Amino acid sequence: MNAEQIIKEKKGTIVDVRTTSEFMGGNAEGSINIPLQEIQQRMDELKNLKKPLVLCCASGNRSGQATQFLSQQGIECCNGGSWLDVNYYQSQTV
Questions:
Q1: How confident is the model at residue 7 (pLDDT cuts 50, 70, 90)?
Q2: So what's the pLDDT on residue 94?
Q3: Distance (Å, rounded) from C-alpha 51 to C-alpha 92?
Q4: pLDDT tens digits, residue range 22-75?
Q5: Are 47 and 75 spatial neighbours (Cβ–Cβ below 8 Å)?
Q6: Is the pLDDT of residue 16 over 80?
Q7: What is the spatial distance between Cα 8 and Cα 17, in angstroms, rounded to a whole number?
Q8: CA 17, CA 32: separation in Å to the nearest integer?
Q9: Where do the structural domains in the chain lie, given as residue ranges?
Q10: What is the mean pLDDT of the chain?
Q11: What is the pLDDT, as a whole number, of residue 50?
């Protein structure tokens, strides 16, 4: 299942891995902010979120890094790319 399907079907959790200040400047509705540099320290929190996780950031680069790391830890997740793309997919929900 890809990010677009997960978002449109309202499954899982959207996690924004941008910095807190970037997140405060605008974010996808219902997303939670766990900055990339805090991923390792917040693994317990991530493990307790509804899966799959859809990770997003500004361009898809940091969320790609987070997706790779979390996948290696056995967490079901995918890269949603830019938070603006995630926002767009949310607007397409039925």
A1: very high
A2: 58
A3: 21
A4: 999 999 999 999 999 999 999 999 999 999 999 999 999 999 999 999 999 999
A5: yes
A6: yes
A7: 20
A8: 9
A9: 3-91
A10: 96
A11: 97
Structure tokens at 62: 């940091």
The backbone region for 26, taken as left when phi is positive above 0, alpha when psi lies in -120 to 50, beta otherwise, is left
Nearest Cα to 58, choosing from 85, 38, 77?
85
Measure CA of the first residue to CA of the last residue in the chain; give whole Å. 17
Backbone angles phi, psi at 92, to 5 degrees: -90, 0
**Within 1-94, where are the H helices?**
3-8, 20-24, 43-47, 61-72, 83-91
Q: Per CATH, the architecture of 3-91 is what?
A: 3-Layer(aba) Sandwich (3.40)
Strands (E), the chain: 13-16, 32-33, 53-57, 77-82
pTM over 0.85: yes
CB 55 within 8 Å of CB 36: no
d(CA 67, CA 88): 20
Q: Coil, helix or strand for 77?
A: strand
